[in-house]
Amino acid sequence: MKTDREKLETLKREYMETPIPPELEFAVRAPFLKKKKSRLPQQLLCLAASVCVLFVAALNLNPAFAAAAAQVPVIGSMARVLTFTEYHIESDSQLLNARVPEIDGTDFPDLEERINEEIQQKIDAGMAQAQERAAQEYDAYVATGGNPDEFIPVTITFDYEVKSCTDDILSFELQRFEVRASSFTELTYYNIDLNTGESITLEDLLGPDWKDKVNAVVNTAIDEHPEFYFAKDQGGFTGVSDSRRFYINEAGNPVVVFQKYEIAPGSSGVLEFEIPD
Amino acid sequence: MAHNSLARFQAYVEEHQAELYRLAYSYLKNREDALDAVQESIVRGIDHLPSLRDESRLRVWMTRILVNECLSRLRRKRPSVPLEEWDGAEPEHDRDEMWDLRRSLDTLDPKLRTVVVLRFFEDRKLEEIAQITHAPLSTVKTRLYRALAQLRLHLTEEEALS
């Protein structure tokens, strides 16, 4: 018979012998790689964005300059479609950062109003919800004896990224990122034909057999690395739906986007597939 | 500065990855879930790194994030193998004196189990466990005694607390 002390030692030995899967190495590194990998392209994007930001700032300050800039063909198209407001709120329970895009100066005031309003509503609603939740979590934490200084504030970030912008097309991504019990990202895409004011569909870009084209690309990728995806009978990819999210990249090709967990385990993250015409 | 602390955080989690995984596995009992929980905690750690003012508390801080992640995952999902299915299926020779103990540990309330695992398997101090679990020291002690009672383990006060 073992003593109780020895039984605990046995349990500890078993605990320490937990088999370590070989993927752990990668699972631990991936979050850092992602940060680093995105650094280079992001810098390029940042450069493009900062040109745009400075430009927008100048635009807002100086109407004469804005009028002049609209005559410059390339940068003019950028300037007339996106301006933004930026804000930052910090409290004990939450950190909030938002860069809110706004469309301006297209030939379609109705379209502008509709999209800008939709974006603003999304952000207001998301923010109110998140604020309430953050306050509740904070109160519950303090009420149960937690040290207020040690509460990890809920972080909410709204941001956007212009995927492509020409004289004819504007494609941008609205991002909502929230970190609390687990992190959560919601992506919304806007693809706008600047000549008609209409939303662009995958069918517009790829033709009537757009579903076949998208399915072919996605299925090829899955066949190459089936281990990264859910199997078909376990909630995996079974074909593209009408409401598939996408954006249009610089090359003018649609890129379909699957959110985390949609067709693959969370460790695969957000998945993007470019569909060449 | 911010870059250095990210590099130190990376060095820390790479060095302690097995420790983090074992802890996650002890809750989730499933390799995919444990891998996912470790990774998700690291992602959260990276995001919250600026809020960690005192880097000497990195170990406590990271353990706390991981334990919270595991507990919230446990709340979200039910056990994948109902316990009834285990009855009788266990090979005869395994039904030794350890068998009941393992089983009671697995069915212990996660809050109590946290204290047992951190105290006896990870050799953490009770003060540290209090910080990790956001609980007063007295609560941690109460949980420890309740856990030992439910596991029918009789330890001296010194064995239990030191």
Provide a concise account of the structure shown.
Chain B: InterPro entries: RNA_pol_sigma-70-like (IPR039425), RNA_pol_sigma-70_dom (IPR014284), RNA_pol_sigma70_r2 (IPR007627), RNA_pol_sigma70_r4_t2 (IPR013249), RNA_pol_sigma_r2 (IPR013325), RNA_pol_sigma_r3/r4-like (IPR013324), WH-like_DNA-bd_sf (IPR036388). Chain B: Residues 100-151 form the RNA polymerase sigma factor 70 region 4 type domain. The complex is a heterodimer of chains A (277) and B (162). Chain A is of the alpha+beta class.
Looking at this protein, list some descriptive labels:
heterodimer; A: 277 residues; alpha+beta; Actin, Chain A, domain 4; five-stranded mixed beta sheet; three-stranded antiparallel beta sheet; 44% helix; B: mainly alpha; Arc Repressor Mutant, subunit A; 2 domains; 9 helices; globular; RNA_pol_sigma_r2 (chain B); transcription regulation (chain B); RNA_pol_sigma70_r2 (chain B); transcription (chain B)
Characterization of this structure:
The complex is a heterodimer of chains A (277) and B (162). Chain A has eight helices and eight strands; from the N terminus they run H-H-H-H-H-E-E-H-E-E-E-H-H-E-E-E. In chain A, the strands form two sheets. In chain A, strands 1-2-3-4-5 form a five-stranded mixed sheet, with helices on both faces. Chain A has helices at residues 4-16, 24-37, 39-61, 63-69, 73-81, 109-143, 202-206, 210-224; strands at 83-90, 94-102, 154-165, 169-179, 183-193, 246-248, 254-258, 271-274. Chain A folds into two domains: 80-199, Heat Shock Protein 90 (2-Layer Sandwich), CATH 3.30.565; 201-277, Heat-shock cognate protein, ATPase (Actin, Chain A, domain 4). The longest helix of chain A is centred in the middle third of the chain and has 35 residues, at 109-143. Chain A is α+β, with helices and mostly antiparallel strands and 277 residues long. Helix content of chain A is 44%, strand content 23%. Chain B is mostly helical and 162 residues long. In chain B, helix 6 (110-121) packs across helix 8. Chain A binds chain B through residues 1-2, 4-5, 7-8, 10-12, 14-16, 18, 20-21, 23-25, 27-32, 35, 141, 144-147, 150, 152-153, 155, 179, 181-183, 265-267, and chain B through 6, 10, 13-14, 17-18, 20-22, 25-26, 31-32, 35-36, 38-40, 42-44, 46-48, 51, 65, 68-69, 72, 97-98, 101-102, 105, 117, 120-121, 131, 134-136, 139, 153-155, 159.
